[in-house]
Amino acid sequence: MKWTRIDATRWIVVSGLIVGPALLAASVLINLTPPGESMRADFDTMAQRSGLIVAEALLETIGFMIVLACFAGASHALRARGGALGTWGAALSITGIVGFSFSNANGFTLAELAQLPDRDAAFGTAMAITSSETAALTSTIGTAMEVLGQIGILLVIGGLMRAHIVRIWPLLIVVVGMIVNVVIGMMLTTLIADLLLLAASTWIAVRLARCDRDAWLGAAGVTRAEPVEVSV
């Protein structure tokens, strides 16, 4: 079987829309613990769970990269109808990748500090890093980029709706997950939001997999020209 580049792109996007949110849910499940009574208690707990914390941060970082990149890639299916929404959504989704990378960098740093034998010095260093002006500025920029990335996801879904590839349900499911996570802000609600995103993006992936090959932007041009072969 020989695939063109457009076929490979579609199936990478379709697979990533399922794998990415699944990794996000897994990142929460492997370290789903209630918060401690204080910041020091949480820091001391890190020493016992440093491996899980690193794994959580790694899975979350990779998961968000895949999710946002594949939502950006989903805009490839849009032509005149929904094309503008998809273009803006793709740009904002890529911006979100940078934001989530900023946020998750702290997970790796704090996990390493928690392993130091001098607990008081390690905690003091952690507090100095997280409370510094540089950290505050980076956090603010990262959070703003995260929000833009989530808006990008919504815009891409809006474009898919305009193109009649999906209906309104995936958009509503993602919005509900975002609201629940922001309003309550617990690990459990983060898991719920990730599972809702998984449900919505899986539905979008199924619709993209079923849509006609020529629905993908540039597919007609690729089929008329000499096909680019991708061996499988």
Q: Tags for this entry?
A:
232 residues; mainly alpha; two-stranded antiparallel ribbon; 78% helix; 2% strand
What does this structure look like?
The structure is a single chain. Helix 3 packs parallel to helix 6 (133-162) and helix 4 (83-113) packs antiparallel against helix 6. The chain has a two-stranded antiparallel ribbon with strand order 1-2. It contains nine helices and two strands. By secondary structure, it is an all-alpha fold. It has one domain. It is elongated. It is 78% helix and 2% strand.
- How many helices does DSSP assign? 9
Biggest sheet: strand arrangement? 1-2
Strand content: under 5%
Basic shape: elongated
Q: Taking all residues together, what is the mean pLDDT?
A: 80
Q: What structural category do the secondary elements indicate?
A: mainly alpha
- Spans of 5+ residues with little confidence (pLDDT < 50)? 218-232
Separation, N- and C-terminal Cα atoms: 7 Å
Order of helices and strands: EHHHHHHHHHE
Kindly provide the radius of gyration, computed on alpha-carbon positions and rounded to a whole number of angstroms. 20 Å
**Overall structural domain count:** 1
- Largest sheet entry: 2 strands, antiparallel
Set out the fold topology:
Blueprint lengths: L1 E2 L1 H25 L9 H10 L1 H25 L8 H31 L5 H13 L1 H30 L6 H16 L2 H24 L8 H6 L5 E2 L1
Antiparallel strand pairs: 1-2
Summarize the structure.
The chain is mostly helical and about 230 residues long. Helix content is about 80%, strand content about 0%. The chain has one domain.
